[in-house]
Write a structure and sequence with these properties.
The protein is 36% helix and 17% strand. With 321 residues, the chain is an alpha/beta fold. The protein has a domain of 218 residues: Alpha/Beta hydrolase fold, catalytic domain (Rossmann fold), CATH 3.40.50.
Length: 321
Amino acid sequence: MSGARRKVSFTSVDADCVAWHYPGDNGACVVMAGAIAATKEPGTDAFAARFHDAGFTVLAFDYRHLGESGGQPRQVVRIGEQLADWNAAIDFAAELPEVDPARVAIWGHSLSGGHVLNLAAHRDDLAAAIAQSPHADGQAISRNASRYQRPAAMLRFGGRALLDAIGGLFGRAPLLVPLVGEPGTVAALTTPDGADMPRALNPDDRYPDWRQTVAARSAMRTGFYRPGRYADRIRCPLLVIACDQDHSALTEPALRVAERAPDAELVRLSGGHYSSYLAGHEPAVAAELSFLRRRVLDAAPSADDRHDERSESPRDRSPAR
């Protein structure tokens, strides 16, 4: 297929989310979003184009407060709002004219991979889910991150995050920090494989408009987010991509999710948190396309079959925060 895509938008609560819509021809759709503060282009382009070339419709969106989407203040990550954006995106994708609503899958990396776990546990209308290097246990991630940061820098970051959180209560502009940095600097991520982010997501400065910063207060929220605890409630086929040297989202929480989820497949890659964008990209794409073909195209029931099987109780669309 051609690489044609067009900009679309949909409303999520109080603002519009902007997305790339890649129309496919096989009736299935993959809804995608990038990692923390990674906009749709650096976060999804490398995978979205491959899924589209295989015939899938793709909807890759920016969360509110980020990229081209609306919402103030900017560069703020709020778990509940991002989950609401996901629900709005999934509902929008299901209504696209070329999409069978029973064949909608979701894909996410890192923090968005954690959202994928949460959504898959709380929605009954998803055909499949792909969690790539997922943020499954924020508490474990935070403890591990402290190993790669110097005490003085941790104190400075904590102080900045607290001031930012207090300022937010009074409507002040966010205090921003870089997404990645060296140990000893005030940055959201200072793990060894965190340093791979620029070349993984933004090689040769391909996306010069991407703001590689995030509100300091956002780190406080993600540190308490543990979507992996819902693994045994996941309602659809799940593919977990885990990297064996992941020092950012960690390998073990991802493995536990794959063990506990009722219908999970696990693919392990060598390398760090961004391996699926670097040396492990081709194996990751191959595994994900195989999974989508088998579990979405070949196995998913039609929309009419889904309707017949559905109980009279309303669908739960309120993922836990």
